[in-house]
Amino acid sequence: PVAIVGHVGTLMRHEIDSNEPSSPAERLSLQKRWEFNSKLRTGEFELTPQQRNGVAAWKEYEREAAESFLARYSCTHEWFPGTESYVPGRPDDVIRQAKKQVANDPSFVTSVYDRIRQDSYPTSNMIGPGCAIFRWLQVQLVYSLEYIRRHGPNRKDLVSKHVQNDVIDAQYATTALLANGLASDDRNLKSI
Description:
Blueprint: E1 2-4, H1 8-18, E2 30-32, H2 38-42, H3 49-76, H4 93-104, H5 106-116, H6 132-151, H7 160-179, H8 187-191
């Protein structure tokens, strides 16, 4: 059997509905017997209409998630003085310091959370490093800072396909923080 950890959105929904952390993520994993479809090996596999619809819905979700990330990225500099005028290629001390603050100061992350929290979400005193909501915000801030480092603040012309890949990486990174690790050979994901 393989334990499949749910999507970070599922873990966050659990926290919103139950007011309890989703960590360790393995506790909420799907316990299913995994069977390899032999038609994948032979090239005979074809998606059913329901599966094709599911793939189309997932692609639309990822497109919307990329747009949402770009909206968050475009205002991230407001929380980190000095990043609003950062020019890519210049010394990135201000970015490294901001990432360090996000990684090492839970009270900073919860202060950002307080400013953006929706009413239906748990209050900041109910979240912390063992919560998917906290880790999701932490990863979003780090990824946004990385975008500022690479592209400068508030760029509107970034290619959505590349952003979609980074959004997926951020979802994996969030889950990895809750599951105590992730096996990946993705150079970009490792560098964040």
